[in-house]
From TrEMBL:
It comes from Drosophila arizonae (Fruit fly). It is found in: Nucleus. This is THO complex subunit 2. The keyword Plastid does not apply. Residues 10-19 have a biased composition (Polar residues).
Amino acid sequence: MRRLKKLSKSHSVTGTQESDAAPTTTTATTTAPDAATLTDANGNGGSVNKETLLNTDIFKHFDKSGRNEFLKYLKQQLQDSPESPVFDRHGTFKRGISNAIYELLWQALRYKLKKDVVLHVLTDVVALHKEFPSLILDVVNILDSETSLMTEGLQEERHGFVQIVKDLDKVLPESLLKERLEIDTLQEVGIVKNKSFYTKFIKVKTKLYYKQRRFNLFREESEGFAKLITEMNQDFEEHTTPDTIMDIIKSLIGCFNLDPNRVLDIIIESFETRPDRWKLFIPLLRSYMPTGAIICEVLGYKFCHFKAARTPRSLYHVCALLLKHGVIELNDVYVWLTPNDGSIRAQWEEELADAREMVRKLHVISTNKKEDDKEPPPPPTTKKFDEEKYNANQKFGLCEALLKVGDWDNALKIIQKLPDQSVVVQDPIARAIVELVHLSVEQIYYKKVFKAPAGRKPSRNRLYDDAALVAKMQAQDFGDLRKYTWPMANVLGPAMHCDTVLMYKLVRIMGKILLDMGVDNLNGPPPNSEQEQHYYDIITCLDASILPSLLYLDSNCSMSEEIWAVLKFFPYHLRYSMYARWKNDSYQMHPNLIRRCGLAQRDIKALMKRVSKENVKPLGRLVGKYSHCTPGLLFDYILVQIQIYDNLIGPVCDMLKYLTALSFDCLGYCIIESLTMTGRGRFKDDGTSLSLWLQSLASFCGTIYKKYSIEMSGLLQYVANQLKSQKSLDLLVLRELVHKMAGVESCEEMTNDQLQALCGGEQLRGEAGYFSQVRNTKKSSNRLKEALANNDLAVTLCLLMAQQKHCVIYRETAAHSHLKLVGSLYDQCQDALVQFGTFLGSTYSVDEYVERLPSIITMLREYHINTDVAFFLARPMFTHQINQKYDQLRKADPNAKKLTTAQKLQKYLEATQLIMNPIVESVRPLHSAKVWEDISPQFLVTFWSLSMYDLHVPNEIYQREIGKLKQLAQQAADGKDSNQSKNKKEQERYIALMEKLNDERKKQHEHVDKILQRLQEQKDGWFLLRSAKSAKNDTITQFLQLCLFPRCTFTALDALYCAKFVQTIHNLKTANFSTLLCYDRKSS
């Protein structure tokens, strides 16, 4: 079909016409349209000689002048390049002459020119150049193909072709015709008349290409092979080249008629004996046998020969060198190796199943007495390396050899063909990869991470002798680690445990990279940067190799600390994701890891059975050892036991003092995982109270986080996420944290003395306001404060708790929960909110508190927080802002040092007005205008912005606590203990506390006086007289609805405040306020 297309194209170019009409003008040549503008080889335009094609119109008057014009055209074409009629002087193909001959012969095929005329012209053409006979035969071959493809009805051209070819022997030599034309054409034309010619041709062809010749073999005359072996195994001189040896091999093959395949085998055998001369043998094999597939066949027969026996290492080595230098392809030789991939995969699955079965049997509890009497021997911790089984696997052997010669790419292909981790778990292969990783980090480690001592000798092994390999794989900068180091380490996986030195090197390199980046657990690298790539490369390596390898290392505390030095740079969510895979997935990767973790679980269970208060210290040391390698399994079981037996919380917390920082961080993750486990009810069976396991776990969280410095960002974020999902049960965890770490109790029932103490200052509240004395909470309180600040959770938790408090009733009621449970959940939200707000107010400095808390209007309008909660959170902010403004006004006065008490009071009232007036105006849109006809916005703000501290000084409680401290100080002074210095310190501490209480009482007296003067100043504008009849009733109604009832139900202290406030406004004789009516409405 291509010929037919070319034929039609040629006709269109030459413009052959069927009409016999004579042309008006005669021209010998025409310019080819597609040759008018040409470009050079580089695509640049230039002036190139235009190629002219024969004008086919000359064939219409060929007998008169066309013949001469045809020959003239050919001569002109030859003038451009007389050496060749096909190519010009630039080497470009010319189609003018071949096209002219093609058109001439085609005219004869269509009988437009006589055959004799055409033959005479061809005779003249042959005389023009020596290459014309070959060119004519090329055109004849094209016509042969074209005419043989003619369909029915176009057989005349084929007949004409046959007639011309019959007489071509008059023009061209017959030998050339027989050489160039097809056999079928020769028989059709009659040049070859013998009918058996084709049969003889087939026999010769078969004998030439398919019949094997006999060569000398070893069992026959062996002189040639002996000489070859001698030549290949001599001590080559330095100037010996592969070409010299190749000439010797060729001469021996020719002289002794040696079998080339056997020669190839001997060359490979010689290479095996001296693989160190690979620079000589590799080029020799490449020149002797350019086709790598044949070399693979020879190697394949060798591998098959050793299928039942141990394959020699020299064969693996030679094969690896040939693969490394590209002489052969891995896929060509891989098919010859045994066993097949399916068998290896089945063996790997069987080993994993055996390991899991062993672990299952460890957890089986036998109830048969006879079996109990016979104690089975403990199973081995790990299976020993089976060298015999390893040697029987040729794929493992080749992979090891590839790694030992530094061919990582081909070794990786073998690793990827087989089941994950089934190759690298083999000890020789793992150590070979370790050597490569050592090579890749050698320079950068001693250059940028660890300065080598002066007398240190550089590492030397066979890999370092290959300068090209060292230059290729050795990292010069941290960016080069992405080429080979990290991929090799990730493939190695848990098998890296076989070389702890390499683990130390990689971990220290990671630490150096992160340190140079300037990242920490709060600030990551810039997005879409090279630093980000390094950042996640380190995470991948830690996840794939470093942490899983730690499962093999028993009691390696220093390694845990080194790893933590890197992990601490990452935020908690990335660390926890690594811990999750380390704890739940990593130990399933190797059969030996499955066995080790099963045995560790057995030992942990036995250990926890012996825990008591008396043996905390020795068992704590054992717990510390287990936590270095399998912290996840250890903490999982400990947490399960704590959830069942809450009396273990104290002993377990004491036992954990031997943990490393990495283990403590992993414990934080395990606690969150235990809280999120599904399938466990969070309520008791009656559905009215929380489960005991949740209460025990919450209590453990408070105790452990107070006792040890564990990052709690993840736990706090978990509580916040639960609140976002409208789940308030986990507030129990937050309550325990605040109680244990900050000493702020959430007491549902309080004594009168405690309520009175809470009316005082911070020192009095700490001494007498709670059931338990607040001791040693400064450090833990600061840690909780920092954790909240770093994650911006302080205000978030407050707002979420406030929102949850008012939605829990409707949500739980809609879910048809028990009424007692609904009340319990509401009380928990309320208590947690008050406790947390109290903690923020007492721990944060006022500046920090003001900076973080949104404005009162933002809380009321945007966050839809109720008035009681919004003012409860904002109350410390008002007091601070008023005091700040008061100090500014006082200092701005020129006579600041000479101000009288009355003037100072006036300044205070002015500061109060400046701060509170914007708030008063901002709360006006919260209620309708009708409400403000009864009470003023100023009164509403005043009521909600004050607290019991502002109205009442608990003098009796102050006096009682000071009296207690005096007695304690006297007892310390009179103490007859031998430790006099301790008694003196105690006495000094009690005296200091007494002085603080006295100062605090004095300040509160001054503050209460200012507040009373402020109320006296504002009282006349609180209640507006609307009408004589209903004014007092409506005023009391609005007061009860907007002020008294919401605050009375907030806390016990707020209820006390409401009573005190009503008493205060009564004593102030506030206009338009009826105290009797107020009491009557409350009681009714």
